[in-house]
Amino acid sequence: MPATVPAPFPWTDVWGQDAAVAALRTAVENPAAMSHAWLITGPPGSGRSTLATAFAASLIAGPGDEQTMHQVLAGTHPDVTVLRTEKVIISIAEARALVERSYFGPSSGRYRVIVVEDADRMTERTSNVLLKALEEPPEQTVWILCAPSEADLLPTIRSRVRSLRLREPDVASVAELIVRRTGADPAVAEQAARLAQRHIGMAQRLATDESARARREHTMRAVLGARGVSDAVEVAAQIVQAATEDAKALTAERDDAERRALLHTVGIAEGQAVPPAVRSQINALEEEQKQRAKRSVRDGLDRVLTDLQSLFRDVVMLQFGRDDGLINQELAAELAAVAEAWPPERTLVVLDHLAETRESLERNVAPALALESLLVTVTSGRRP
Fold first, then answer.
1. Residue 237 binned pLDDT confidence (cut-offs 50, 70, 90)
2. Which ranges constitute the DSSP H helices of the chain?
3. Is the whole model's pTM more than 0.70, yes or no?
């Protein structure tokens, strides 16, 4: 594995993005290279939010002021506002609150920095709320938007920001980072980085959670082993159930803690009846938690579909005589059997349907029906 030299603090956790780090460090040091608004784009797991936070720390703190930098990285500095959403979309109310805050001067740092993670989750109306603030920001306010690609934002937004595209780190670099962060076995880290397709967060989870690796392999084998409509329906149900249970496991403890914190804040003891005056706050919290859970399930299903795309991408490679660079090397024998049994045209039909299924889930199509339709295509080679 090639050794990577980390960038100096506060850029230490930004991995495999030397060109982007150099550009932002230059902007911090040279006013002529600075912009009032930035758009950081790159595939999921490339480190967009990590880079944005490091940039914010460098902007706000003076040279060598590591205490302030640590405060920014910890998310406790008053001059940094970060909007990250676990809901389906960013609301207009959230955008308006950001704009209002952007007109405050910095309280203790050199700049006020507004970071919008997942800016692609803004609707057109929400994006329009930001336009004036991006056109005419106060002199000491910097906006940093993060999204998978420039195409995910309106042209009016893109025209008002300076874009910085992140590169996809290679498997070896991600594996090296996982080993440094977690102490994972290098072979496990390499496998996790490869199966996660270089998505750093997912690779870290796979490397540190044996059950997550086992669930992924079970799902891939179940899809490859499906032989008819009944199998397709059963495997689709298993995938939806697994994604739902995974989402519950990730959100249940947090939901309970948020509810207890809210009740404590308004002075209601555990088990005490909630008075009518407080019910609206409880209802608002529960609605937000439902939206977060919905997004978590959808993200989990999208991750499964991404894994399936890697599976059938490997099949296509084998069908065209390429056995190097397989993502799912642990399933090489099963993939070879499918590649021999299917014509390439059938695999391409499956890949097309996979891409359409991902888009359908974003449009709130019922997950079970979408997956059943996809798996019928997998088992039959024809669109239902």
1. very high
2. 18-29, 48-60, 66-73, 92-102, 124-135, 155-158, 171-182, 186-195, 200-208, 210-225, 229-265, 276-319, 332-341, 344-362, 367-380
3. yes
